[in-house]
Amino acid sequence: MEVNGKQKGSTKLGKAVLIMLGAALVLAILVLGVFTITGLEIEGNEHYSKKELEKLLMQEKFDSNSLYFYWKYKYGEPEEIPFIDTIEVEMLSPHKLKVTVYEKDIVGYVEYLGNCMYFDKDGIVVESSGEVVEGFPLVKGLSFDHMVLHEALPVEDAEVFKIILNLTQLFKKYSIKPDKIYFSDDLQMTLFFDKARVLLGDDGNINEKIVRLQNLLPGLEGLEGSLHMENFSENTENITFEKKSKAVQN
């Protein structure tokens, strides 16, 4: 039987397609085998551990492939990770990548409708979560009747955010971690540490107050009552701690 030119052409085309598919398969196997992530070098993380970030960054099927991972975080649109602003990726080798994370500039959070609303130094709500994340102080006493993500907290006096920023920077510098910060209507501050509270008053002499508080905190452990620092200055020698009165039992 004779084979005409069209049949010969079709046979050659079919063979070419099979060769291309075979080559693509071999290339895919090589890529999947060679470009496999064995380690991520992570920098910039504070509120997530390395293991937590690895789990959050590598959730999809092909995330363990270094080429795919690099393309995804360099040019793609991956899902947002809570509290992370931007992610930069650098390929160090076929098996290792360097990941630099830039966390959102959060200074505290407020509670609203059962959620924790985290805000930045300007009072902009940058994150909403149903869980409390360690490292950010709870702020109480601020008055607002509504809240919108990515917009400023509608408080009466925006000056409070400058005070909060200064406070949280001092907390970080001196390794102080209050359970919460309470503001009165006239911006008088109270810090809560378990059953003890520290009345700071306004933000006058705040640096000196926090430095002194750092030395006093170990002595407050296990105590219930109020430490009065409202009128503290660099010349203050004695600070009063008022123990909470216990009810008399009959």
Overview of this protein structure:
The chain is α/β, with parallel strands linked by helices. It has 2 domains: 69 residues, Ubiquitin-like (UB roll); 109 residues, Rossmann fold (3-Layer(aba) Sandwich). It is built from 5 helices and 12 strands. The strands form 3 sheets. Strands 7-8-9-10-11-12 form a 6-stranded mixed beta sheet, covered by helices on one side. The model has no long low-confidence stretch (mean pLDDT 83). It comes from Anaerobium acetethylicum. Keywords: Cell cycle, Cell division, Cell membrane, Membrane, Transmembrane, Transmembrane helix. This is Cell division protein FtsQ.
In a nutshell, what does this entry contain?
With 250 residues, the protein is of the alpha/beta class. The protein contains 5 helices and 12 strands. The protein has 2 domains: 35-103, Ubiquitin-like (UB roll) (Roll), CATH 3.10.20; 135-243, 3-Layer(aba) Sandwich (Rossmann fold), CATH 3.40.50.
Topology:
Blueprint: H1 5-34, E1 39-43, H2 50-57, H3 66-74, E2 84-93, E3 96-103, E4 106-112, E5 115-120, E6 125-129, E7 138-140, H4 159-173, E8 180-183, E9 189-193, E10 196-201, H5 206-220, E11 225-228, E12 240-243
The number of helical elements comes to 5
What would you report as the Rg, rounded to the nearest angstrom?
29 Å
| Order of secondary-structure elements | HEHHEEEEEEHEEEHEE
Largest sheet: 6 strands, mixed
Query: Low-confidence runs (pLDDT<50, min 5 residues)?
Result: none
The percent of residues in helical segments reads 25-40%
The fold-level CATH name of the largest domain is Rossmann fold
CATH class of the largest domain: Alpha Beta
Question: Could you say which overall geometry the principal axes of the C-alpha atoms support?
Answer: elongated
Please report the distance between the alpha carbons of the first and last residues.
Answer: 117 Å
* Sequence of strands across the biggest β-sheet: 7-8-9-10-11-12
Structural class per helix/strand content? alpha/beta
CATH architecture of the largest domain: 3-Layer(aba) Sandwich
The average pLDDT is 83
Strand content: 25-35%
Q: What's the total number of strands?
A: 12
Number of domains: 2
